Amino acid sequence: MKTTVPLLAFTCLATASVALTGCLALKPVSDPTRFFVLSATPPSTSTAPAPPLNAVLGLAPVHLPAHLLPKSLCIRKSEHEVVYADFLQWAEPLEQAIPNVIGQDLTQRLGVTRMRFRVWSRNAVDYEAQIRFFHFEADEQGRVILEAHWTITKPGGIETLAASKSRVVKEGPPPFDDPDGSVAALSDALSDLSAALAESLQQAHAGSHPAPGIMP
Question: Which of the four CATH numbers 2.70.150.10, 3.40.1390.30, 3.40.50.10610, 3.40.50.2300 does domain 34-38+51-206 have?
């Protein structure tokens, strides 16, 4: 009988431990994942507003390099290495977010209220814009680099009106320390790209619609 008391105590202790472990397992665990969105940046108030562009613009789906397709924020560690912040994610795919933001930027800059995205008939637009990205990420120190090649053509691509490669560099906060500020710097870089597109669209439109008495 003397040996059964320690055995019984040990059994009770083990049972209580299992029950306690079960209660801890059921305790909700907070998810540290944060989700971010790009946003349009209003043009500087020091810049005179451009005259409204009375035209319909078709913005084709953007082309992104494969390293920008994952949902996690891509952070450049070196020229040949990138890392992904698993707990810092885009709320929507970049291939959808980027054209939406550029569309908003162009609307603010040019007064364009008629835009087409992804698919349209040839006679539904006056101009088409295509953008291919090579870089759109921040490094560990917060430096944002955007590199993209873009073209503006007549409908169906029958004539290229403008083509250029834009490189935008912005200084932002380290993404691991201030991811919201880093995403804001990425949005600002898109705004600079939109400004280049807007300027070329204005020139193309002015060239195809010269003032009376002026030969194109």
Answer: 3.40.50.10610
